[in-house]
Each structure stands twice: as C-alpha cells, then as structure tokens.
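hey so u asked for the seq, here:
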Amino acid sequence: MHKPNFISFTIYINIYTQETQHLKKELSKITKQTTMKKGLSRKLIQNTKL
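ran it, structure tokens below
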C-alpha cells in the first residue's frame, strides 16, 4: 500500500524542484537587472563628478 504514496510523493518533489529552479532563475534575472541599474547609477555619478 505504500507504493502509490511514494509515487505521488516523488511527483510532488519533482514539481517542487522545478518550481524552485524557476524561482531561482527569476531571482537571478532580478539580481542581474538590479546590479545593472546600480552599475548605471555609478556611471552616472562618476560622469557628474567629472
């Protein structure tokens, strides 16, 4: 009787892993965008100092 539970549990873990990977990708995109914006603002500050 444990087999069906195990299978559904495995499926659940697979879905969870996919969701987590997707979230990590989204987070890294956001992080890249933020660092790019920070870099741009730094460039602007450096340009105004000159």
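The helical segments are 2-49. The longest helix spans residues 2-49.
lmk if thats what u needed
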